Amino acid sequence: MMGKVLCVSALFLATLFVGVSSVNAQPDENNAPKGVNPPNRERKAKPTRAEQIAKRRTKKIEARVSEIRLQLTQAGFTDAVLQTTIVDYYKSEQEARAKISDQYLQVVTALKDKTTTNAQFIPLLAELRTSVAEEKIRAEKSFADFSRKLKLADNPRLDALLMTQGVTGNERALASQAAGMDNLVNALGDFKDPAVKAN
After folding, report:
1. Residues in contact with 82: Cβ distance below 8 Å, sequence separation at least 6, in sequence order
2. What is the C-alpha separation between 149 and 46, in angstroms, rounded?
3. Which of 101, 97, 80 is nearest to 142 (CA)?
4. Minimal CA–CA distance to 62: which of 91, 85, 97?
5. Domain assignment of residue 184, yes or no
6. How many distinct structural domains can be found in the chain?
7. pTM surpassing 0.70?
8. What is the CB neighbour count within 10 angstroms for residue 68?
9. For residue 125, what are the domain limits?
């Protein structure tokens, strides 16, 4: 009987030892299951300043095109082909002037930089003014072709609408500059002579 008890006790202690050992045992790192690494996310390249300017320019032109179509419709020029011809002309003119816009921005940027020397301004100004002179010649020919195509000479109302809305010519820009100067002068106060007061 005593031998039986000792045998059971020995078996119990062995079982207890094995249980404690299994509880305290550390997992084998070499045999641990390995998870799948998530794919690397590709970082989108930050758009350059030129790309940002081009994107803003495109959005601005598209918004202006919508305005032009609306103005034509409200004025009674509802023909779809006519409207498309006009907005295509407007967009092509804006694209042709993009170079001047970029060169003008270069001058403005150089002017803000106090380290820009007089020697550095010379080519920037020369290139800009050359482009402006060339653009005047191109724009005149482009408008002449456009005017003949739409027969604007026979439709002065449409001619006036396109001019006042800045689709054709530079009259609107010049008039806006003059109006801005007049408003500035008037803001300085009333003149003693009403006839001299602008507007």
Report:
1. 72, 150
2. 43
3. 97
4. 91
5. no
6. 1
7. no
8. 20
9. 50-168
